[in-house]
What does this fold into?
Amino acid sequence: MSKLWGGRFQKETDRLVDDFHSSISFDRRLYRYDILGSIAHAGMLGKTGIIREDEAETIIKGLAVVLEEIEKGLVEFSVEAEDIHMNVEQILTDRIGAVAKKLHTARSRNDQVALDIRMYLKDEIDNICGLLRELQSALLELAEQNIYTVMPGYTHLQRAQPVTLAHHLMAYFQMFQRDRERLRDCYGRVNILPLGAGALAGTTFPLEPVLVAEQLGFAGVAENSLDAVSDRDFAVEFTAAAALIMVHLSRFCEEIILWSSAEFSFIELDDAFSTGSSMMPQKKNPDVAELTRGKSGRVFGDLMTLLTVLKGLPLAYNKDMQEDKEALFDAVDTVKKCLQVFRPMVATMRVREENMATAARGGFTNATDLADYLVKKGVPFREAHDIVGKTVYYCVGANKSLEELTLDEFRRYCPAIDGDVYGAISIQRCVEARRRLAGPAPDAVLEAIARAREKL
It folds into this structure.
């Protein structure tokens, strides 16, 4: 097959170079965007008189046929044609003849591929935002079911203070909310039309890129032709946002893995989202959570790939930028797959409320409330902190919880303690007293859920 760019060359490209150079094995997924972009470009060429309107119409109809054939699986792409752009043009030429050669007027593959990637990424941002929203909805439903489910909150993976499962779940809701906001913010920078930049310096033809932008749903047109074809910062920004989504999923997975262990036994995963052992018949493994946690590394790697590809490139386009697609595609695919399986895994897990409550009653999670109680009695906080620390040390030796101490035992460390201390340090009271904004008290969490539903 003769290359569409082969006029200057006198020798055929070595087959090793064809294989090395070709990107059709992975950029074929851009076919729809490539064809829709070409249809808009052809229409603009006709309206501006750069080509005849009947020629533009023939090209547009031919592209529609090519799109239909590809979607029906009737097209075999060629490695020799290198990429999706030249494959589509070659197929179009086979279908409608020489008029197809006018399609590439006033256009380069450089601005063409930048257009395709932006169109692709706009759709995928919408898809991922939808998946995040579904996950957030599942978290809200689970939170509403566990408003009064008390559990220990942790720092350093040590029991710290009592919270509720609902409050804990709402923390992840907020993380995923920021993830959605980051993606929507990124969308604004993706939503710029690069077509018309040509290879790097625009074109002498009287293009009207605003027409193309309107047809393809872009909010604006690139203001610098060099920048339009030579940067992929929007792809880096998306992948950075995707990496943060994976950070949040991975952290959640770590907790699910811990909580489903016999040592915690806070939850039980549904059989449909667990796996077994080929050797140990008793095992029920949280492999979905583990694999999601592991896949975070792929997306982090994709981000590093894009940064490394771009970091040393002079303006404008360089062939290095072909390496942007596989990393970008992998980040998109990985995040989508993880979100698709994560939501039903969380929605179907069974919460062991009593085990959570028992854990919350251990580990002196009400020690801070005892210190606060003393402060309200007029004891300076630093003194209160010391008193409670010594009281806890006594409890450890006596194998008692704070609630199990007698009033006389309390008063060994502070005479200001009265009988009302027991109400102040009950686990339920510790939770209910924290009803300020962002706190774990049931009424505060219900208000947070109501605000969250408005955000969705």
Q: What stands out?
A: The longest strand covers residues 158-164.
